[in-house]
Design goal:
By secondary structure, this protein is an alpha/beta fold. Helices cover 34% and strands 17% of the residues. β8 and β9 (293-296) form a beta hairpin.
Length: 306
Amino acid sequence: MTGLRWTRKTTQKLANWLTANGQRISANTVARLLRNMNFALRTNRKRIESGGKKKVKPEDRDRQFKYINRMRKRFTREGLPIISIDAKKRELVGPFRNSGRTWARKGREVYDHDFPSDSEGIGIPHSIFDTVRNRGSVCIGTSRETPAFAVDHLTRWWRREGKKAYPKSKELLILADCGGSNAARSRVFKWRLHQQLCIPHNIKVTLCHYPPGSSKWNPIEHRMLCQIQNNWAGHPLDSYETILKYCRTTKTSTDLKVTAHLSRKVYEKGERIPDRKMKMLPIERHKTFPAWNYSIPPRPLVQEKM
């Protein structure tokens, strides 16, 4: 006995090896014996938390979830808007393989390799989900996922949908992940929110970020994005119009409705907000995990004292 607890050998190969060593046995018997000993072909399981020294403690994660729940209850009780935001991975636009299956008489033929040079371009879906009204908005970007891209979509949504749905509201709660274009540490995201949304529309924005490694609990993941992915599963995203069509036609039994538009604006990475400007930003940190929870009121920039 070598202590070996796993192998990629087939049951037939194991049976042949045992037979060659004096134990005559069939592949079916090997399979039955393995099942009786709780052996099976198993996959890797993503259960070991990563992050090194920055790993979030379970009690801190639980505390943040409870805080987000309290904030959602307060905003709901006061009739204030709550939205969940996220951006998904970029999609190659063209006749490329798309995971999933669909009912058809014949499978669609697609490229055998996913070379970006064969594509019409890329599509970056940034999404907003109104948890109160069960309504979604998707902006398909064609350049890069940046904080400027995220804030432009948020501003457009508020101007075209949010303000009409909540005409008397002076506060907005945003639920977001800790990373990506709306990262909790992103200075550009906070600065642009103040400059493009808070000041022009006189609204106070409160951000609550889900802890690292907890993005799947963001409401937009299981109430909207998975529905869109199910809608276009197995269909090649061969044009921007196709992507927009599948977003707009996504519906559920709970009456989810989604709007979608295309943004061909070119966004550049590398934007920086210096310390001097950040000190001028009237940001209000909450007592509970101030790095994850904060509010940006529609007040002018705090001028530095001479």
